[in-house]
Amino acid sequence: MSFLTVLVGTAAFAVAAPVAGCLLAGLDRIISARMQGRVGPPLLQPYYDLRKLLEKDDVSVGGVDGLYLTCALVFTAFAGGVFFTGGNLLMSAFLITMAGLFFIVAAYSSRSPFAEVGAARETLQVMAYEPMVLLMAVAFYLAVGTFNVSGVLALDAPAILLTWPVFLGYLFILTIKLRKSPFDLSMSHHAHQELVKGMTTEMSGRTLAKVEVMHWAESVLFLGWTGMFFMWGGWPSLLVGVAVAALAWLFEILIDNNFARVKWQYMLKSAWAVTLVAGGANIAALMFL
């Protein structure tokens, strides 16, 4: 795969992913509202909120958080570009982790005690889900024979048949990566769970808008990871992958609206336990097949 292909894919992802993520965020709000017996906001409410943020003055305490978030956006775009052009899954995982680290540094740079608590919790979340992501990439390699996502198109059957324990483990940590309750420790979109806004306490205007766009793009990427397990043999299987990703997304909304936030200790222990059991056992089985 040429570097030019990745650049074109990155540019396409940088444009299309925030649009798709914005629509998903709007649907999320509507579905959540209906689950709670409310009508909910219009579908494009996240876009209206983003436009309002872009029109506001960008007040920064540390002065460099906007720069760090720009770097996080760039790494997110490259992670999506690598993945959706059929590139290296492990590289995509590393790039999105780098984006998360820049986000953490941006929160720390404000020197706000509330933002620092949120950044510390975000660091714990990275420690909780990252081992499972790495084992997912390893299991994908053992099942497909390559780290390249395009390798699924040469399979006679979807990789899920060999990697279903890892897939279940990935679904568990997907709740953390999508920032859904009960694992939305560092920042939450639920107003009743926050006295202050965690990592984004000191962020406003265009800086906060970057956070929203990054989250929308991340959501599309993570759902793409979900669908790749169900693709094989040709592009028609893409429909199967999209359908499974949609079901996983609906499942995460259901979890988000039915579970209260847990303590960080439970999140860390449960994520590592799932990683050890699901990821470790699956990889051990694949190595001896």
TrEMBL record:
<dbReference type="InterPro" id="IPR052561">
    <property type="entry name" value="ComplexI_Subunit1"/>
</dbReference>
<protein>
    <submittedName>
        <fullName>NADH-quinone oxidoreductase subunit H</fullName>
    </submittedName>
</protein>
<dbReference type="Pfam" id="PF00146">
    <property type="entry name" value="NADHdh"/>
</dbReference>
<keyword id="KW-1133">Transmembrane helix</keyword>
<dbReference type="InterPro" id="IPR001694">
    <property type="entry name" value="NADH_UbQ_OxRdtase_su1/FPO"/>
</dbReference>
<keyword id="KW-0472">Membrane</keyword>
<feature type="transmembrane region" description="Helical">
    <location>
        <begin position="159"/>
        <end position="178"/>
    </location>
</feature>
<keyword id="KW-0812">Transmembrane</keyword>
<feature type="transmembrane region" description="Helical">
    <location>
        <begin position="238"/>
        <end position="255"/>
    </location>
</feature>
<feature type="transmembrane region" description="Helical">
    <location>
        <begin position="131"/>
        <end position="153"/>
    </location>
</feature>
<dbReference type="GO" id="GO:0005886">
    <property type="term" value="C:plasma membrane"/>
</dbReference>
<feature type="transmembrane region" description="Helical">
    <location>
        <begin position="90"/>
        <end position="110"/>
    </location>
</feature>
<feature type="transmembrane region" description="Helical">
    <location>
        <begin position="6"/>
        <end position="27"/>
    </location>
</feature>
<feature type="transmembrane region" description="Helical">
    <location>
        <begin position="66"/>
        <end position="84"/>
    </location>
</feature>
<feature type="transmembrane region" description="Helical">
    <location>
        <begin position="267"/>
        <end position="288"/>
    </location>
</feature>
